Amino acid sequence: MTGKIIEKIIIKGKIELKSGLHIGGADFGISIGGIDSPVIRNPLTNEPYIPGSSLKGKMRSLLEKVLDVDFETFGSGKNKVKRHECNDENCKVCRLFGSSIDKNKSIPSKIIVRDSYLTKESKELLEKLDTDLPYTEWKTENSLDRITAAASPRQIERVPAGTKFEFEIVYNVENENHKKEDIENIFKLLELVEEDYLGKGGSRGNGKVEFTIEKIAKKDREYFINGNNLFEKEYGLSPKEMLNKLQEILE
Ligand SMILES: [Zn+2]
């Protein structure tokens, strides 16, 4: 696997929260400002963001479930996770998301999912929000103590519904034969994420999101070397609607 770049397909758009989002930040083992469970923030700006690894991890696990592939257990104890990894470079999961299970034949991830930051508009709106926390809200969730059956309310910090983030996914074309199906899978997975959730507490209604694909750019070797052949097009469509545009993106 040389990892030669044939072309990069760049998908840009917005993620809109349809319900409050909780992606947990560093657990310091202490309650910060009375919040048991803080959200992850950019340490430079203090703004909440969606780590690319959260979206990518959710996409991967949904593809694994849809394709019903075999799972391996990685890590141990509290860090134990089940994930599919194999050394078949035609595997639809591993060729897109990468695999390092075979030390002699690791498969690099073909997609880069960038961290998603607040849009300018959302940042301004959230700055006016009247809570004790910058850019976020509190939600009290009751969890039942399994032993005493007593309700123990916890304060969960969430980014409020209506907030928008910028997102970007870069797909590296390394194998022309995989390109169409991989791009199709990216849009289908974004649609599946919409029917699932991001972050914590999805079954309690948190983390419902909606994607709008605003722009597709294609930068091939010709572009990088000579500055020619840049494909760029504006859309403003849902991931599902983008499936009808595959042909024009791929030609
Ligand atoms: Zn695989």
TrEMBL record:
Keywords: Antiviral defense, Endonuclease, Hydrolase, Nuclease, RNA-binding
InterPro entries attached to this UniProt entry: CRISPR-assoc_RAMP_Csm3, CRISPR_Csm3_endoribonuclease, RAMP_III_fam
A Pfam family it matches: RAMPs
Keyword Magnesium among record annotations: no
Superkingdom of the organism of origin: Bacteria
CRISPR type III-associated protein domain segment(s): 14-210
Family named by the database record: Belongs to the CRISPR-associated Csm3 family.
The protein's name: CRISPR system Cms endoribonuclease Csm3
Native source species: Marinitoga aeolica
